[in-house]
Amino acid sequence: MVGEGSIGSNRVLLAGPLGWMNESGPPLRALLNDYQISPDRLIVIHDDLDMEFGRLRLRRAGGSGGHNGLKSILQSLGTPEFCRLKIGIGRPAPGQDSADYVLEPFSDEETERLPDILDRAIRAVECVVAEGIEAAMNRFNPLASEA
Q1: Which of 42, 65, 96, 146 has the fewest Cβ atoms surrounding its Cβ within 10 A?
Q2: What domains can be seen in the chain, in order of their start residue?
């Protein structure tokens, strides 16, 4: 699923996998090929179990951190050189399966917080596109930041 738009004078594509996130690498590679986009122009937005719910963290590049969707993307792209916006979802309860946890609905409290979290995520992506990854990391990565 792909949509086109702009952030300032920058043309952007927003794409979401229609299949399993764990198998999103091949369709992403095809999308980048179709639009002739280099992986270094990519921003992958994904959940992160190792961060508290709602925390944002931008990274310039890196490994999968155990995230199966990122493993698929890394394997398909053949490079770790793409930006990531991680959105914390917190850890499952002791004994709860991580796969089940990431697929379950948000709690009422989490659902109430989603509009603010998504607003900050949108502003973080806009900042990356308009001002660059360094400015966005400085603004959105600090724990106290509600930029």
Answers
A1: 146
A2: 2-140 (3.40.50.1470)
